[in-house]
From TrEMBL:
Database matches in Gene3D superfamilies: Aldehyde Dehydrogenase, Chain A, domain 1, Aldehyde Dehydrogenase, Chain A, domain 2
Segments forming domain Aldehyde dehydrogenase: 13-459
Any single Pfam family the record assigns to this protein: Aldedh
Catalytic residues, chain numbering: 245
A GO term, aspect molecular function: oxidoreductase activity, acting on the aldehyde or oxo group of donors, NAD or NADP as acceptor
PANTHER family: ALDEHYDE DEHYDROGENASE, ALDEHYDE DEHYDROGENASE-RELATED
Protein name per its UniProtKB record: Aldehyde dehydrogenase family protein
Superkingdom of source: Bacteria
């Protein structure tokens, strides 16, 4: 697609306030594929004012009409699926088949789920002698990451629109072309002017201006825990609501009764998916001590198959960051059984699929989010030891448990300090709430729980 040289504000593409632009680079060949405006605080203010002006009308729109606009948006995204996939592949470097199935496919499901929820959700209920109303929060500032560029947009914008909120989106600077495609889809779906607005730009400039704007009622952010803390502090000072989906260091716990080969192979696939750039990836594999060597061998063999099947990481900074973690793992005494810090290609931001054995829970690579195709394998002595290790980080976003009997896995999963757990390879559910415990965030996305983030409660007594 051809990049727009303006911002989508109040239903039209408008020139940016400044002249600075951001290069969009293809991480496979390091070639510039486009430029977008580097938004300023002035651009953000214009967009927020448009969202504020549009809010009363959209909030008063019948839920059935909001549902109809979301259904139309779903249909537009589905019709443009190939173009979306090609754009994500160009910006992010993901293999085209993965972009088609996940990056373009999942947002269609999520948009459709909120079309249905907008039509069926109980925005009003009787409680004794009271009528309780669920009303839209107001203007939402949505700040999204690059790793799932369209999914993260839809997971914020769709429930906000379903609730009756208006939105200003600041997408990641690495993947703005996908966000521009989404803005085109919103217009094509007939969403009224000002209800959705897009400002491209850098996080410390446009993102900060959006988070701090006094007319933004809720900030929904997905990204690093460090940035989430700053946004939370800013919002707290203004008594402003936040929804924060932050980092993860999820445990994949393989109990002694599990099918070891299946659990290891699925676990490796989970970590390598999207080049490891998934906040919920199961990057810590916990294995019984008496089957540790067998698991390491299986993981090394599985990782070797991904050498030419995964794309690059998003940019040079991220590539160097991931390589730095691999080097630190070696320096701290972990054993490389697959991959390593050396680049597998002469061009592009590629990182070798990497597996570490002999990892202890105190090591940096077992505690910090790497955000690349790097798996750490830890041994445990018994179930209590496994639980302690699994819960032994500041994060609590996701995880997995494998056991011979589902009930055994469920019993263990209920003791994990984490927001979402897959049992024996459970499938993705776009209606299940997603979000974290501890420093993995505040609030939930997807399904009715995601919708409720954008609602506030009023009761009338009779």
């Amino acid at each position: 697609m051809k990049a727009h040289d303006g911002m989508y504000i109040d239903g039209e593409w408008r020139p940016a306030a400044g002249r600075d632009t951001i290069e969009v680079v293809n991480p496979v060949d390091e070639q510039v594929i486009g430029h977008v405006p580097a938004g300023t605080a002035e651009d953000v203010d214009t967009a927020v004012r448009a969202a504020r002006a549009a809010f009363p009308g959209w909030a008063a729109t019948a839920p059935a009409e909001r549902a109809a606009r979301l259904a139309a948006l779903r249909d537009v995204l589905a019709a443009r699926k190939d173009e979306i996939a090609e754009t994500v592949t160009a910006e992010l470097g993901a293999p085209l088949a993965f972009s088609q199935a996940v990056h373009a496919g999942v947002p269609v499901l999520v948009a459709g789920s909120y079309a249905e929820l907008a039509a069926t959700y109980a925005f009003e209920e009787k409680v004794g002698n009271s009528t309780v109303y669920q009303e839209p929060v107001g203007v939402v500032g949505a700040i999204t990451p690059w790793n799932y560029p369209l999914h993260q947009i839809v997971a914020k914008v769709a429930p906000a629109l379903a609730a009756g909120c208006t939105v200003v989106l600041k997408p990641a600077e690495d993947t703005p072309l996908t966000a521009q495609l989404f803005a085109e889809a919103v217009a094509e779906a007939g969403v009224p002017a000002g209800v959705f607005n897009l400002v491209t730009g850098l996080g410390p400039v446009a993102g900060q201006a959006l988070a701090e704007h006094p007319d933004v009622d809720l900030v929904s952010f997905t990204g690093s825990t460090a940035v989430g803390r700053r946004i939370g502090a800013t919002a707290g000072a203004a008594v402003k609501r936040v929804a924060l989906e932050l980092g993860g260091k999820s445990a994949n716990v393989i109990l002694p009764s599990a099918d070891l080969a299946k659990a290891v192979n699925v676990g490796v696939a989970n970590v390598m998916s999207n080049s490891g750039q998934t906040c919920s990836a199961w990057t810590r594999m916990l294995v019984p001590a008496d089957r540790y060597d067998e698991a390491v061998g299986l993981a090394a063999a599985a990782a070797a198959k991904y050498g030419d099947r995964i794309g690059p990481v998003v940019n040079a900074k991220q590539r160097d960051r991931v390589r730095g973690y691999i080097e630190k793992g070696v320096a701290e005494g972990a054993r490389l059984v697959a991959g390593g810090p050396e680049s597998p290609r002469d061009q592009g931001y590629f990182v070798s699929p990497t597996v570490f054995a002999d990892v202890t829970e105190q090591m940096t690579i077992a505690q910090e989010e790497i955000f690349g195709p790097v798996l750490t394998i830890l041994r445990y002595e018994d179930e209590e030891d496994a639980l302690r290790i699994a819960n032994g980080t500041v994060y609590g976003l996701a995880g997995a448990v494998w056991a011979g009997e589902e009930s055994e896995a469920v019993a263990f999963a209920r003791r994990l300090d984490t927001g979402q757990v897959d049992i024996n390879g459970g499938r993705f559910n776009p209606l299940a709430p997603f979000g974290g415990y501890k420093q993995s965030g505040v609030g939930r996305e997807l399904g009715t729980h995601g919708l409720s983030e954008y609602l506030q409660t009023k009761s009338l007594q009779f």
